[in-house]
């Protein structure tokens, strides 16, 4: 256990209740589980639900895919918030001032995650809610295209975040 504490806390670092190993472990578990849930929902919506809605819209599939999205959207949002909050905590406690390649990868991943969250909250969510309320068919087509584009961009940003987080520990081996 002594080795783990030295890895988490640099020498001469005052330990506090906010940087205890159990709290860091809980934050890490929340970050990983919520991140998996967030990414999973985003990838399923973009790769499965949206194409089915588009392909089978005339058969009434949009109604079902809309219901799926209405349930998955809030779940994704909550998971995103937990992921971001726990990630901020972990960055502050474990990687503050990290100027290594690993630190750079974490910052790139964090930026991609924050941008994905902003895109989801500022663009995708309002468009989805507007679509659910209904509008004329021409307006619906334009909103669907914008929603699909924002969802794809969100998925790409979440994908970048996932790849950065998954590979940051191995960055020192690349030198």
Instruction: Please state roughly what percent of the residues sit in beta strands, choosing from under 5%, 5-15%, 15-25%, 25-35%, 35-45% or over 45%.
Output: under 5%
Spatial extent as radius of gyration: 20 Å
Low-confidence stretches: 1-7
Count of DSSP E strands?
A: 0
Number of helices in the DSSP assignment:
5
Distance between the termini: 29 Å
What coarse outline follows from CA principal-axis ratios? elongated
**Helical proportion, percent range:** over 70%
Largest sheet: none
- Name the structural class: mainly alpha
> How many discrete domains?
1
| Mean pLDDT across every amino acid position | 85
- SSE topology string: HHHHH
Q: What is the structure about, briefly put?
A:
The chain is an all-alpha fold and 175 residues long. The chain has helices spanning 2-8, 21-55, 61-94, 101-133, 137-167. It has one domain (21-174).
Notes on the structure:
The chain has 175 residues and is mainly α. It has one domain (21-174). 80% of the residues lie in helices and 0% in strands. It has helices at residues 2-8, 21-55, 61-94, 101-133, 137-167. Helix 3 runs antiparallel to helix 4. The longest helix has 35 residues, at 21-55. The radius of gyration is 20 Å and the shape is elongated. The model is unreliable at 1-7 (pLDDT under 50).
Features:
mainly alpha; 175 residues; disordered N terminus; 80% helix
How would the blueprint of this fold be written?
Blueprint: H1 2-8, H2 21-55, H3 61-94, H4 101-133, H5 137-167
